[in-house]
């Protein structure tokens, strides 16, 4: 029996402008698909992430289903499945909210990282005629707030500091941490150092861990608290444009350093954008808020 065509959307996440932020393909499944098929399609899209949504029904899921819509959500880079992806989750939630597939302001996702939630957030803005309009009413103005687990880090004692510095084009290294999710968090003297990095991707691929997050404090005159970049060539992504999961590691580090739980971050990739972050210190959850824009839609026929 022929498989049903799969509807997909390409969404730029963590941005309100097309062709900025981080693109993700969001595929809506009506029936099970093989892992090999999902990986092959992700390679075909060749975006930093392709995600697959399947609506869950019935009582055979743990934890039990609630009245909140719940979807299975999986994420694939061009070469591998990953356990957590922020921008593709934002893109998936945005697609569900804006397509009318859910009649709710909250969605639950069943993932390899447990149950994650996404919330549609509206705020009032001054309209041209002096009235107030809800941002969520316009397609390009929907805020989505993600609730993710924090990814704490500990000091990384390694004889490879000089190698890591050279892999980053000779950037001076202040300290190196290793997150629970197995990323290296490399702190450099300033946000300008982050922006000016000349990464050697082949060398970064040989660094310990899954990926390398480079970060520095933002200039005092800027509107940001810290600046970062994220390199993960082991997963087929030389530089991730705007990475939500990396900020699950950055949030606890910078909240402790700066002594506050609400942060504004900038990811300084060529498509870079701003992230608004809150860390719940007691429950160790990271709230990431961003917008998204649909730039493409179509159907996969095979």
Question: Which CATH class of the largest domain is shown?
Answer: Alpha Beta
CATH architecture of the largest domain: Roll
Structural class: alpha+beta
What is the number of beta strands? Answer: 20
Say which CATH homologous superfamily of the largest domain is assigned: Diaminopimelate Epimerase, Chain A, domain 1
> What's the rounded overall pLDDT mean?
92
Q: Could you give the distance between the termini? A: 12 Å
Note the overall shape.
Answer: globular
Determine Rg (CA atoms, Å).
19 Å
CATH fold assignment of the largest domain: Diaminopimelate Epimerase, Chain A, domain 1
Residues in helix, %? 10-25%
Flag low-confidence runs.
124-140
Describe this structure in words.
The protein is an alpha+beta fold. The protein folds into two domains: 6-149 and 290-300, Diaminopimelate Epimerase, Chain A, domain 1, CATH 3.10.310; 153-283, Diaminopimelate Epimerase, Chain A, domain 1 (Roll). It contains six helices and 20 strands. The chain has helices at residues 35-45, 86-99, 161-167, 191-195, 201-204, 244-258, and strands at residues 6-13, 22-29, 49-55, 70-76, 81-82, 106-111, 114-121, 124-126, 132-134, 143-149, 153-155, 175-179, 183-187, 211-217, 226-232, 237-240, 262-267, 274-280, 285-290, 292-300. It has an 18-stranded mixed beta sheet that branches. Strands 8-9 form a two-stranded antiparallel ribbon. A hairpin with an 8-residue loop joins strand 14 (211-217) and strand 15 (226-232).
């Amino acid at each position: 029996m022929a498989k049903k065509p799969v509807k997909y959307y390409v969404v730029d996440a963590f941005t309100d402008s097309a062709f900025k932020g981080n693109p993700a393909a969001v595929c809506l499944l009506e029936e099970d698909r093989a892992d090999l098929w999902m990986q092959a399609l992700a390679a075909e899209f060749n975006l930093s992430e392709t995600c697959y949504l399947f609506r869950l029904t019935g009582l055979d899921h743990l934890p039990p289903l609630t009245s909140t819509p719940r979807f299975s959500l999986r994420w694939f880079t061009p070469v591998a499945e990953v356990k957590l992806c922020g921008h593709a989750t934002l893109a998936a939630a945005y697609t569900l909210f804006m397509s009318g597939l859910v009649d709710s302001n909250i969605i639950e996702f069943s993932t390899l990282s447990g149950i994650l939630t996404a919330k549609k957030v509206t705020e009032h803005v001054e309209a041209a005629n002096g009235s107030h309009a809800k941002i969520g009413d316009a397609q390009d103005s929907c805020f989505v707030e993600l609730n993710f687990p924090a990814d704490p880090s500990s000091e990384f004692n390694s004889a490879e500091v000089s190698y890591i510095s050279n892999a980053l084009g000779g950037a001076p290294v202040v300290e190196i941490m290793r997150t629970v999710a197995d990323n290296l968090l490399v702190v450099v003297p300033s946000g300008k150092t982050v922006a000016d990095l000349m990464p050697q991707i082949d060398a970064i691929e040989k660094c310990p861990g899954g990926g390398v997050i480079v970060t520095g404090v933002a200039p005092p005159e800027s509107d940001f608290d810290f600046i970062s970049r994220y390199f993960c060539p082991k997963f087929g992504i030389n530089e991730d444009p705007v990475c939500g999961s990396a900020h699950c590691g950055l949030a606890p580090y910078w909240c402790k350093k700066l002594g506050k739980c609400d942060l504004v971050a900038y990811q300084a990739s060529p498509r870079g954008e701003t992230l608004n972050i809150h860390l719940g210190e007691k429950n160790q959850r990271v709230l990431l808020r961003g917008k998204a824009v649909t730039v493409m839609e179509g159907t996969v026929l095979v």
